[in-house]
């Protein structure tokens, strides 16, 4: 992994091309990370929803089987 340039606070106050470049890279990385975490959140919400649906379906199946067992016996 290449070395990462650091942007010192004193340098951030200056309007140099290097500062603009580092800020641009930071903004781009922050945007990419935000997109990634939003996609991860959406995927996890889908998994959570699927787990809840599976739980409800399993409970319903259990109730149906118990009702059937009571009718048969």
TrEMBL record:
<dbReference type="InterPro" id="IPR004148">
    <property type="entry name" value="BAR_dom"/>
</dbReference>
<dbReference type="InterPro" id="IPR027267">
    <property type="entry name" value="AH/BAR_dom_sf"/>
</dbReference>
<dbReference type="GO" id="GO:0010008">
    <property type="term" value="C:endosome membrane"/>
</dbReference>
<dbReference type="GO" id="GO:0023052">
    <property type="term" value="P:signaling"/>
</dbReference>
<dbReference type="InterPro" id="IPR047181">
    <property type="entry name" value="DP13A/B"/>
</dbReference>
<feature type="domain" description="BAR">
    <location>
        <begin position="7"/>
        <end position="71"/>
    </location>
</feature>
<protein>
    <recommendedName>
        <fullName>BAR domain-containing protein</fullName>
    </recommendedName>
</protein>
<dbReference type="Pfam" id="PF16746">
    <property type="entry name" value="BAR_3"/>
</dbReference>
